[in-house]
Amino acid sequence: xxxxxxxxxxxxxxxxxxxxxxxxxxxxxxxxxxxxxxxxxxxxxxxxxxxxxxxxxxxxxxxxxxxxxxxxxxxxxxxxxxxxxxxxxxxxxxxxxxxxxxxxxxxxxxxxxxxxxxxxxxxxxxxxxxxxxxxxxxxxxxxxxxxxxxxxxxxxxxxxxxxxxxxxxxxxxxxxxxxxxxxxxxxxxxxxxxxxxxxxxxxxxxxxxxxxxxxxxxxxxxxxxxxxxxxxxxxxxxxxxxxxxxxxxxxxxxxxxxxxxxxxxxxxxxxxxxxxxxxxxxxxxxxxxxxxxxxxxxxxxxxxxxxxxxxxxxxxxxxxxxxxxxxxxxxxxxxxxxxxxxxxxxxxxxxxxxxxxxxxxxxxxxxxxxxxxxxxxxxxxxxxxxxx
Length: 388
Fold this sequence. Notes:
Blueprint: H1 3-7, E1 11-17, H2 21-32, E2 39-46, H3 52-62, E3 66-71, H4 76-86, E4 91-94, E5 100-101, H5 105-115, E6 124-134, E7 155-159, H6 180-183, E8 191-194, H7 195-200, H8 215-223, E9 229-240, H9 244-253, H10 257-271, H11 277-303, H12 309-323, H13 327-332, H14 338-348, H15 357-375, H16 377-386
Parallel strand pairs: 1-2, 1-4, 2-3, 6-9
Antiparallel strand pairs: 4-8, 5-9, 6-7, 6-8
């Protein structure tokens, strides 16, 4: 028996794939070159119509650790669920096929788990990550991945919005000591999940067509219902994105989705009787941000003669979503935009209280300093412009 089999638990990496041939080679190469070798690589082709399947077959011919599941298109959530169900590993990771991971990602997360008591003590191990943007030259130039060729001349990377901010007093711990993981992108792919924990608690992705933002409720189900978490501030995952514009464009096409997923998160909170202020404050902030995104999308649809019956349904959903929010949490959160508070007050038919300007300015100063240090000047101002 090999050293890996003796001392390294099997880790299953699930890769849900749909029409990503342009990026898939890079993704698979980053997985196959992991320093941690005891891997099961489960690649699910979700009805791709490009050359993704052919690329998978070529890689599988050279690497016996790869398992290919070729199926009809069902969407991200269903595909991830099928991959997790098929996994034999004690730990599960998810790698999106247009992203790539650092060569030591799995090793560092397994070491982190073992350093804090192993699978008897840990349910989820999380890391920081890189945000990868394309076709622009601002941000922090020169932040190359350890994996050769992963950052092209047209791409740049900045650290994720919680790097350097997650500082639990001890580990493992609950989500209450890792609030920052709830305040930004769900980033569920920066983790290893104990398979027994997922199975025992019936934690799975919501199954809807397409991507559908199903990472949102999965984040709450996996992280906020008693999970024992550990964290490393090493940036181990490379996530390609287009910033706020990507979310705005999506909402213009499917304006119902952001608030539907937010309500899914609230359903989980209520089903598990979660009363943590950390969780509830984070969900309030996310809910208001999604409401602003949604109203912007509805306005755009009206201006472009794209509005219809769905838009009326979404406005009703907006009102119902606000009914699930505590006004004190909305108005008392300095991280919520004044426009968001005004929208909440307008829809709920209540007076908009006076802004606590001191708390708001203190928040902005702290956030601005962090963004400048973390993202660089150009990316910080671009983000501010995108979010008005």
